[in-house]
Amino acid sequence: MLRRETLKRLKGLGVGVAAWTLGSQTLSALAQSADAFPSRSLKVVVPQPAGGGFDFVARVLADKMAQGVSTGVMVENRTGSGTLVGTDFVAKAPPDGYTLLLGSVSNMVLNAGLYKNLSYDPVKDFEPLGLAVGYSYTLVSRLDAKLKTLKDWLDYARAHPGQVTYASAGNGTGQHVIAAALWHVAGVELTHVPYRGAQAAYTDLIGSRVDLFFDLSSTARVHVDAQRLQALAVSGAQRLPIHPQVPTLLESGIENLELESWFGLFVGAKTPTKEMAYLRALVKEAMLAPEVKERFEKQGGRILAWGPQESRQALKKDLARWVPLINLLGIQPE
Question: Which residue segment(s) compose the domain that 150 sits in?
Fold first, then answer.
């Protein structure tokens, strides 16, 4: 299944064959026993529109993976209902290894708390191929606002309930949940304005038609650096190298609230063993590539490069943490 050049690159990266053993089969054995897969292009489904954080991670990984797949790797943006449509599409796709999902905390964790009748099970319907990178969120405001800090906005919101608006990339997305959790913890009432993806939200934020947006730091950074928007706070435990002057939520007076969204690739749980092994090795090779790490780090990402076991543990840990919290806070899709 794995081509000889792919195996050579793995060795060049210092990855031992034993690390890729699946049962009694090594990659070398797989490479010799199943040359038929893939016989056509692999497809990475992104459940968000082009141009956002989901799309960036998917295309960086897909570009690298395509170098080891003669049939190619394509990216398809399948949007709708936040991240539900694209994720459900992969869950119901034939489990033949040709349809992959770009998964994150948003569609694999938060949706499980937001939707009581979720059409897919993040654990039972999917198998992780690997988690590549983690990103913090950055809270940004329209540039022409006289309010310059998170405290300023919270004070204003307390005095003017419902008058401050905040955007999201759709109901149930990470941008929606982290922002709603912040307003709840801070005891303020803001008006939610959902969009179909981050780019539409930025258009209105830059045009001063909405006040605030809590987006992935990797995409928010572009607009902050271009001085189109103002950064107020980051959601991670520490300040970010990409904008070190921006305080964390804790530094801004908000305790017990932080979120970093991981991103990685998943495939249907019933994908055959040989195809699964091929895909996991292919994804691992892409995650370990120096140029991939460099692109993620330049966008403010924290390199993970986690294999299936670590990825599965992270998924279950975040489900146990965020689903009860979402229910406790009473956050619901609108």
Answer: 136-234
**In the chain, pLDDT over 90 holds for what percent of residues?**
66
Whether residue 83 is found in the same domain as residue 27: yes
- pLDDT per residue as tens digits for the range 30-61: 444 445 899 999 999 999 889 878 999 999 99
Q: What 3 state SS string does the chain have?
A: CCCHHHHHHHHHCCCCHHHHCECCECHHHHHHHCCCCCCCCEEEEECCCCCCHHHHHHHHHHHHHHCCCCCCEEEEECCCCCCHHHHHHHHHCCCCCCEEEEEEHHHHHHHHHHCCCCCCCCCCCEEEEEEEEEEEEEEEEECCCCCCCHHHHHHHHHHCCCCCEEEECCCCCHHHHHHHHHHHHHCCCCEEEECCCHHHHHHHHHCCCCCEEEEEHHHHHHHHHCCCEEEEEECCCCCCCCCCCCCECCCCCCCCCCCEEEEEEEEECCCCHHHHHHHHHHHHHHHHCHHHHHHHHHCCCEEEEECHHHHHHHHHHHHHHHHHHHHHHCCCCC
Residues 104, 37 within the same domain: yes
Q: Give the integer Cα–Cα distance in Å for 79 and 172.
A: 13
Same domain, 172 and 129: no
The string of pLDDT tens digits covering residues 198-255 is: 889 999 999 999 999 999 888 899 999 999 999 999 998 889 888 899 999 999 999 8
Structure confidence at residue 163 as a pLDDT band (50, 70, 90): very high
244: tokens are 């070190």
Q: Which two tokens stand for residue 252?
A: 């801004």
